[in-house]
Each structure stands twice: as C-alpha cells, then as structure tokens.
TrEMBL record:
It comes from Lonepinella koalarum. Homodimer. ATP binds at residues 12-17, 66, 184-185, 213-215. GO terms for molecular function: ATP binding; dethiobiotin synthase activity; magnesium ion binding; protein homodimerization activity. One of its GO terms (biological process) is biotin biosynthetic process. It is found in: Cytoplasm. This is ATP-dependent dethiobiotin synthetase BioD. The active site is at residue 37. Its EC number is 6.3.3.3.
C-alpha cells in the first residue's frame, strides 16, 4: 500500500546496494516488501549500432544486474517483468530511437500493480535525481507527481558533499519529502571519511539511515544490518502513494 523512491547523488554510487539494505532491514521486521526498478540500463560502454535502434521488446535479454539483485532480495515469487518496466542494453536510451518506447503510463501501471499486492514497494531510480525518463518527464517529476518519500544514497567520494547538497536542495525545492540519506563507502582508500560524514550530517536536514562499508560483492551480502535508523524506515510503510 505504500512506496518510496531511492535516488542517488550520481550514477554508480550504490543505489541498488542501498535498496537491498532497506529491503532486508524491512524484511527483518516482517514487512512485506518488494523492489521495483522502472528503467534499467547496462553499464557497458561498448555497444553495437544495432543496440541503439528501436526494439519491440521492453526488456531486452532480462539480465540487468540491478534488476536481478532486486529479484534475489525480494522474498516473494516475482518475475523479471514484475519488477522492471524497461531494460536497455546501453546507458543512454533517451538519446536513441529506444527513448520513444518509454511510456509513463506503463511505469505508473506497473507501480500501481505492485502497490496493490505488497505492503511496501522500494522504487530504485536510474542515474541521478534530475535524470530524464523520457523527453517529457524526469525521475524528479515522476516522484513529485506521486508524492513518494525519497531516500538519498550518497557515494562517499571526492566531490560528494557538493553533489549531495545540490541534490538535497532540489528534492526539497520540488516539494518531495526527504525521509533520510544513506552513506555508501565506495572508495576504501578515501581519507577523512569520518569528517565527510559529520559534515553531511550537519548540512542535511534529514537523518542518516545507515552507513554501508566497502565490502566485497555487497549485492550478495546481508547489508540490512547496516541500516541503523530502523524507526525512520518503518515510518515509510504508512505513507500512501497518491
């Protein structure tokens, strides 16, 4: 009956790992939760011309790693197409013929279907907060229209303070409820980690939900244990999508 949106300060900051962590933390509280990735794009840079032309299928080869991680994290029996609306074999479908395939109505219908079946739907975005879905909608537009609460994933690296504060400013200015943020340590050699976390704590007007350390293959690990603000997470299940 409720859903919320996981966005990031950039691409490759750990949105899928953070989504898995949230799902596992809620599952530990016996909350019926499912993950949903509306649009999935491969991270491979080497593509053929044929990959960029229109395709009749919305799902490609159904092998996107992010979607598969959400499938494996979800305890319910779901199919690839249950939790994904579009999969593309390259990173920029909007700038190819395939961008015409992406229909907001289909994404809305898929989300509504999951909301009817499950107690909580964790929706993982693609790229960053203001990234376009198609030529008419950004992820921010779509989330604001649904008034979904937002969780921001911060990949702790050089420049993340600037990226984080700009993203937080945009979320709040657009009127989306910011539930909290998650710190994901993506660079184990980065100095002054604690100082960066303290700075972000003081600058962000939303609580820190958890800190995910740099670990090997986190998509296969129990990362729910790193979500320390469980009370804030359980609030999410009471917020209904309009």
């Amino acid at each position: 009956m409720s859903s919320f949106f996981v966005t990031g300060t950039d691409t490759n900051v750990g949105k899928t790992v953070a989504t898995r962590a949230i799902m596992q933390a809620l599952q530990a509280l016996d909350i019926d939760v499912v993950g949903y990735k509306p649009i999935a794009c491969t991270q491979d840079d080497e593509i053929s011309v044929g990959d960029c032309v229109g395709s009749k299928s919305d799902y490609g080869t159904e092998d996107n790693a992010d979607v598969l991680t959400l499938m494996h994290t979800t305890k319910q029996d779901v199919t690839y197409q249950d939790i994904n609306s579009y999969t593309f074999s390259h990173t920029m479908p909007l700038f190819t013929d395939q961008g015409e395939q992406i229909q907001i109505d289909k994404i809305n219908q898929d989300l509504a279907h999951l909301n009817r079946k499950y107690q909580t739907v964790v929706v993982e975005g693609c790229f960053g907060w203001l990234s376009p879905i198609n030529k008419h909608f950004s992820f921010a537009d779509w989330v604001v229209k649904h008034q979904m609460p937002v969780v921001l994933v911060v990949g702790i690296k050089e420049g993340c303070i600037n990226h984080t504060l700009l993203t937080v400013q945009s979320i709040l200015n657009l009127g989306a409820p910011l539930i909290g943020w998650i710190a994901n340590r993506i660079n184990p050699c980065l100095g002054h980690y604690a100082e960066m976390i303290d700075t972000l704590r003081n600058k962000i007007d939303a609580p820190l939900l958890g800190e995910i350390p740099y670990i090997y293959k986190p998509e296969t690990q129990d990362v729910g244990k790193y979500m320390t603000n469980i009370e804030r997470l359980t609030y999410l299940k009471t917020v209904l999508v309009k």
